[in-house]
Structures are given as C-alpha cells and as structure tokens.
Amino acid sequence: MYPRSWERLENSVKLNDMALLLDQATILYSRSEEDAKRFEDCKKRMFQNLNNDSFVYGKALECMDKALEIYRSMIFEEKLYRVRSEADCIHRCLSQAVAFMNHTYTESAIYSENQAYKGEDENRIYSCPGMKIVPDGFFTNARKILEANEAAVLKKTIFALLKTTRTFILERKPKGASSKDAEGIDYKGLANWYQELSLTWRRLRYFCQNNMVEKAYTDASYLQEEFFYIAKDYKVEELNLLDSFDKDNLSLLADRANQLEKIIKAILKDHGVKINSYSSVEEFIGGINLHSRIFPKEKRLGRKIWLKRFLHKKECRNPQQAQRRKKHCSSCR
Fold it and tell me: What is the pLDDT of residues 245-272, one digit of tens each?
C-alpha cells in the first residue's frame, strides 16, 4: 500500500519523483472511473517523456548538476563516513543520469552488472535492466566505491565517474537540439552584452600591447567567465580564450581575443542585429538627446540609467547577469 497525491504523481510524470510508482503500481481502489483514467494518463505521459530524446537528455544534465554540487562539498570532507555517504548520493545521481540516457529509470545507485540486470521484478527499486549502455569503466569504478577504505581513494574514484559520465552524456546530445535551442533567443540581449563588454576587449588589447601581464590576465579571465555565461544563455559555442595566454608573449592572447570578438560580431550580423557604435562620447550624447526628443520622459528612464553606466569609471557586467551574481558596483546599484 502506497498512498500518493496527484501532485506527487505529476512529479513522477516529469521523472522528478519515483517513476517506479507509476510504472509498476496496481490500483487497488479508485474513487471514480475518472480517477483511474487520470492515473493511466499519468503513466502514459511518463513513458512519453522517457521516450523523448530531448527530455531525457535534459533530465540527465540535471542529475549531473546535482552530482557536481554534492562533489563540491565532498572534496573538503575528511571523515570517511561522510565521504562514503556523499559518494553514494553522487553515484545515485550518475546512475539516474545514465538510466535516463537509456530511456529508463533507476531509484538507487547501481554498483554492478549483476545488480543492474539480474534483479528480481519485485526489487526493481534496486535494479535497472534497461541500462544497456554505460560510460567507460562505469561498473569498475562503481565497485571501487564499495571496496575503498580511505576518503582519498573514494574522492579519486568519484572524480573518475563524474568525468566519464559527463562525457557519456554530452556525446549523446540529441540531433537537432541546437536548432531547437536557438528558437526564441534574444540576440539583442547578446548585442547589449557585447556593447557593455567591448571596453574589456579594448582594455585587454592595450594591456597586451604594453606587456602588462597581471592586468591582461585579469581581464582575459573576466572575458573567459563571460564566455561561459553566453554559451549557456545564448547557445553560443564555448569560446576558448585563456589557452592562448603566455606571459612571455601576450600578442597571442590579443590575437585570440580579436578572433573571438569577430565571432561574436558575425553571430549578431547573421541574425540581423545591429551593434550600436559611436566614434566619440559627444556622438553618443547626441544620440541620447535625439532619443529624448522622440520619446517621453518615462520611456527614457532606462536609457538614462544606461548612460550613467556608460560614463562610470568602472565597467558593469550585463545588468541581468550582474543582478544574478550580485556584482554591481556601488555607483550603479
């Protein structure tokens, strides 16, 4: 007997909460025929989700993120019992991710082929017969978790599992996912991001030309961090800047920064987005004055705030990203 609310059953449909209860449950009593039909509809939709390549890929990435979050705290643990507990949590997330990529599910960590494939039907909570394709060394490393008697060994083993499982998932990204992801992207937002970061590019070029190593590295790292964000927010390919850093030859870094800037401009051009540019501060101010004659005061407020940021000595990040990271400077809050 396992009573279940409709709210929790909907979570099972979305593969967020014990899919097993929809898959193998038998209705002993229903208040009405409509309730029974509703239950069967939940079950049908859950299997539709399991058979949807894009859906299970997204769920696998969610599990991977959870595993990485736990790992961030585990690496600082020294007590064996704590590391063992977190290692099991991580491996359960990874097992679920691998199961989703096989269009199935598991409710527990899977440590061996025997556990996965030879479990009894009534013990489906501890097995996963549909997990046919797994990352390299998945079961070998999983068994090492059970054999390890030292925290350091467990941490090393979990790192290996995280690395291979992440590769396994990313290599199986559904075809056509990129084109679907691109739908609805606000490329004007990307243009705004570039316009605010253009100063960083100019500053980086100056630092490289004048062999200012520390400042060049700082701004290059700043740009690299921003590239990570636009790769996620605007589905832009991950741009690699810092591999070009050489403290004895900063021209390599400057050249690479220029190449990446051209890539961003090309993306905006391909999507018909114009980049606002001004040859001088006076020209920019003139544009603001023209704008003020066309639009009423209340519609100009955002532009005035943007002007304040433009003229401020410290460069602010993209407003939305800055709010998320809480890194506005004091003058621009």
Answer: 999 999 999 999 999 999 999 999 988 8
CA 147 vs CA 75, 93, 228, 310, 311: distances in Å: 19, 20, 37, 59, 61
CA–CA distances in Å: residue 256 to residues 151, 162, 205, 235, 239: 41, 31, 10, 20, 10
> What does the block give as tokens for 103?
């269009």
**For residue 62, what are its two tokens?**
């969610």
- Paired tokens of 295: 């639009």
Q: Is 49 left (phi over 0), alpha (psi -120 to 50) or beta?
A: alpha
Do residues 24 and 124 lie in contact, with contact meaning Cβ atoms separated by under 8 Å?
yes
pLDDT in tens, 287-332: 655 454 444 444 434 444 444 444 443 444 444 444 544 444 433 4
